Amino acid sequence: MSNYQIVYMSVLIFLDQSEGHIKKNSFEAASYGAKVAELMGTSAEGIVFGKVNDDLASLGAYGLKKIHTISGEGATELDSQVFTNALAQAVTTLEAKVVVFANNLDGKAIAPRLSAKLKAGLVSGAVALPDTTNGFVVKKNVFSGKAFANVAINTEIKIIALNPNSHKVIKTEGTAEVSELNIQTPAGKVKVTAVNKVVGEIPLAEAELVISGGRGLKGSENWHLITDLAKLLGAATACSRAVADAGWRPHHEHVGQTGLAIAPNLYFAVGMSGAIQHLAGVNRSKVIVVVNKDPEAPFFKAADYGIVGDAFEVMPKIIEAVKKLKGVS
Ligand SMILES: Cc1cc2nc3c(=O)[nH]c(=O)nc-3n(C[C@H](O)[C@H](O)[C@H](O)COP(=O)(O)OP(=O)(O)OC[C@H]3O[C@@H](n4cnc5c(N)ncnc54)[C@H](O)[C@@H]3O)c2cc1C
Prior knowledge:
- Helix content is 27%, strand content 24%.
- By secondary structure, it is of the alpha/beta class.
- The strands form 4 sheets. It has a 7-stranded parallel beta sheet, with helices on both faces.
- Strand 14, helix 6 (276-282) and strand 15 form a beta-alpha-beta unit.
- The longest helix is centred in the N-terminal third of the chain and has 17 residues, at 24-40.
- Mean pLDDT is 92; it is low at 1-8.
- Bound molecules: flavin-adenine dinucleotide.
- Flavin-adenine dinucleotide binds next to helix 5, helix 6, strand 15 and helix 8.
- Flavin-adenine dinucleotide binds at residues 214-216, 240-243, 254, 256-259, 271-273, 275, 277-278, 281, 291-294, 297, 310-312.
């Protein structure tokens, strides 16, 4: 039996927002943080920067007792230095002992800085709740998802960045108390002068459904097989590095070890071999469907559903079937 006792004060969850709306990954982080708080016998509280249009009190349904808001000039756009400074003050003021981020762009920008500032141990890419039977041990992905590591955090303050799709969103009932934290956020050193958004496309990093094409599609002229299905399903489009290198698709669509790592609910891969470097970016997808004419293609080993067949025959049939299902001509 251990001869020391750790007192956990609260679990603080960073809630990511975009254009006034809380992002999907934050609901996962909130549900996860609420479970961590339950394990610790303490309460879970959220913290959000800038103006939010969503009803913050309703986030109580995800297990958050309180939501702290931070306003000010530096709170409107993500500036990792400004946000880190403000969060460090919040952690001290609120006596938080565990801080949870989603391991997305914002989480990756802030969590390591906060870890350095507070001299707090950080596990990024966490995939499970901490094991608190003997210390505080968090399981994470290593080697591009090929293995797991159990990492013990021994510092008083602990930081966890949760991989997307690693924890179920748990929504029940409840209302959170919302109040403004009196923390200054001066304008940062970096000034955003313009934001150019691609209109009409679903952002790949946050897409629930992704239709992706590989070299098996033979050329950019055949990409309608990917984009037509994506449009019908409201999905984002992606591709292999080989495809982006060939100039068939833009590089921001390339997923994998050297591209974007994604974790959609559906990853639909057409004419892709499933190289290890590609799988590194997509193996956290909930459901993987593969269309490939080679039954020995490695991608089938990672797939939940597989269609062995020629993409040029299979895809038009799938597109027709979805059209019929949706009543689209
Ligand atoms: C350091 C390093 C980093 C890398 N990083 C990445 C990365 O981040 N992302 C990435 O994707 N790759 C990456 N690669 C490249 C990777 O190794 C593969 O070369 C690449 O993923 C292959 O792309 P592909 O599956 O589109 O093409 P291919 O490997 O050529 O596969 C094409 C597939 O299409 C199938 N096919 C052919 N015709 C048809 C048809 N008519 N119908 C159905 N199926 C058909 C074939 O059977 C084959 O399986 C990296 C490589 C290195 C060395």
